[in-house]
Amino acid sequence: MKLPVIEMQIDEANESFISAISLVHSPAIESDFLSFNEDKFRYSFSSDEKMELIGAVMLPGKPIFRTSPKGDFYAVFTKETIRDASQIFSKKGLLQSLNINHNADDPATGSYIFQSYLTDAKLGVTAPTALGDIPDGSWICGMKITDPKLWADVKAGMVKGFSVEGLFKLLPTDQTVDSDDLELKNAIQEYNAALAKVNNNKW
Question: What's the maximum distance between 2 C-alpha atoms anywhere in the chain?
Answer without folding.
Answer: 53
